[in-house]
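[09:14] KT: can someone run the structure on this one? pasting the chain below
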Amino acid sequence: MRQTGCKQMTGLLAALIALWAVANPARAAEPITWRHGLIEAKSDAGILLMVTRHDFAAKQGLKLEITQFKSDIQELQALLAGELDSIEGGVGGTISAASHGTEPRILGCHWPILPHGIFTKNSVGAFADLKGKTFAISSPGAMPDLMVHAMLAKYNIAPGDVRFANLGSDLDRYKALSAGVVDAAVVSGEYVPIAQKEGIKLLIAGHDALPDFIRLCMVTTAKTVADKHDSAVAFITAEMNALHYALAHKDETVALTRELTDGKPDDPRPGYIFDLAKGGEVDPLLSLPMDKLDWMQQQMISSGSLPKSIDMTKYVTPDIRAAALARADK
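[09:31] RB: done, structure tokens below
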């Protein structure tokens, strides 16, 4: 009789555990590691890395591993080599990789507007004055390189009429401009609040001159989509929730930026870039702006970095975004 009671109790316990596991799949299972890459943290770090706080990833059953890179070309190479599950960066390299037969997949674009611009010394009056001058960019094919070529085309200056200097990060490029090593630099708009006192100005804002230029998208590979589809949905869900939270909590987001970048309390840049993001530059719904993606590849064709257009609908994953939207916090 006692043995029968124990068996019933054991059976009841097992049933309860099973029901709990069904109702709480993310908690019942061991978290799945998701390896993600992004550009080195700067004044937008609190926005882009809020996903590492408040268990946004853990609540979706994920354990995030974050790797930071100097350029989006470096992180794209790591992604295509299978070292990462996803990256966030400019789409120029992604489009180029797709045109060469690889299988990148764009999950969504969370920063579809360009916060960067062309910075120069105060003595420069117009973009035309930069003919024959040196531009600080990043790796060929990376966002700063594509942006400068798009600007040159817009203002009818041939690429051969300027010089290019590959100088890595925004900070590297800004320092080179400040020291007079280069005449112009592609730099994040976050430097506007501190530029004037150093004799530097934002000559042209990217979002004004190039409104269709996309800054950041989340990218993975066809193999990862096939092998880790549910985890990809979980990752985009976590990002949506984290971005919504970050934009709704300025003080916390700015504080996180300062923590991650060892920033000083009186540094105005984190607050400045937050206001740009909050003002409409960041899309927490990670839309897939096909018109802008097509514009990006047309610019690449015009500059000669892309031989011909490709069908961008083959390289986006609307089903993953739709599943994440249905799952994200309302």
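[09:33] KT: thanks! The beta strands are 32-39, 62-69, 86-89, 104-111, 116-121, 134-137, 163-166, 184-188, 200-205, 216-221.
[09:34] RB: yep, looked fine to me
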